[in-house]
Amino acid sequence: MADVHAEGSPGDDRHRASILVVDDDPRITTLLMAALSKDGYAVTVVNESRKVVSMDLSSVDLILCDVMMPHMDGFALLAAIRERVSCPIIFLTAKTDEDSAVLAYGLGADDYIRKPFGIAELRAKVRARLSRGSRRGRPRLHFGSLDMDFQARQIRVDGHNANLTDAEYRICALLAEHPGRAYAPMQIWEACLASEDDPAANDTDSDATAAVRVHLSNARRKLKALGVDPIRTIWSVGYQWVA
């Protein structure tokens, strides 16, 4: 099947947001194309996951990706592209075991929606992921050699980009804006990762806590590789940013 493109309504500010849908099931992609295009997004559908590896993804604002696909599954695809994309990535999958969710988050996924899903839930999560980029009042924060640029949504250490995923960056930004304050995993989930438009979404406490821990572990590993370690674990409480 040929790749499909659809432009959103020009009257909606969200028409500038570009969404890539990767799924080999045309029934799913037709549903997502109709719903997301109606919401005003520019949607591109790719039914063959291997094609995504060679695509220019620099202008993509969000990726919706199935897990169980032939030739290259969603996990393998994410591992192949994650180093060159920082946009949110949401997995759509029929897998329900916790190990699969932890694997997805460990590879850099930002969310994990189990099939069958409600289209309202998915639309809410997409809106939440795309709306979290412009809420910071201050343009930058500095902590010694570490520079947090809210406009670029990046953390640099001595000029070197930490290459955080969207979820990793959002968690670090929350902690950095309130240095010294300890956040419990569920507080971090609710502030940075949970869908604001659908608080009753199907995320269990264990799923949420596992996701936060994996994202934080990945962020700390990347920051430590650049010589800084601003995040502390407060046992039995949560996490804090040390200025």
- Uncertain spans, ≥5 residues at pLDDT below 50? 7-15, 133-137, 196-202
SSE order, one letter for each helix or strand? EEHEEHEHEHEEEEHHHEE
Largest beta-sheet characterization = 6 strands, mixed
**What overall geometry do the principal axes of the alpha carbons give?**
globular
Kindly, what is the distance between the CA atoms of the first and last residues, rounded to a whole number of angstroms? 52 Å
Please give the count of helices.
Answer: 7
Helical fraction: 25-40%
The side-by-side strand order for the widest beta sheet comes to 1-3-2-4-5-6
In terms of DSSP E residues, the strand content is 15-25%
| Cα-based radius of gyration, to the nearest Å | 18 Å
Count of beta strands = 12
Structural class: alpha/beta
Mean of residue pLDDT values:
83
Organism: Bifidobacterium choladohabitans
InterPro entries: CheY-like_superfamily, OmpR/PhoB-type_DNA-bd, Sig_transdc_resp-reg_receiver, WalR-like, WH-like_DNA-bd_sf
Modified residues (4-aspartylphosphate): 66
Domain Response regulatory: 18-130
Structural features, described:
It is a single chain. This protein has seven helices and twelve strands. The chain has helices at 26-38, 74-81, 98-107, 119-131, 166-177, 185-193, 205-225, and strands at 4-6, 18-22, 42-46, 62-66, 89-93, 111-114, 140-143, 146-149, 154-157, 160-161, 231-234, 238-241. The strands form three sheets. Strands 1-3-2-4-5-6 form a six-stranded mixed beta sheet, sandwiched between helices. Helix 1 (26-38) links the parallel strand 2 and strand 3. Helix 5 (166-177) crosses helix 6 and helix 6 (185-193) packs across helix 7 (205-225). It is globular, with a radius of gyration of 18 Å.
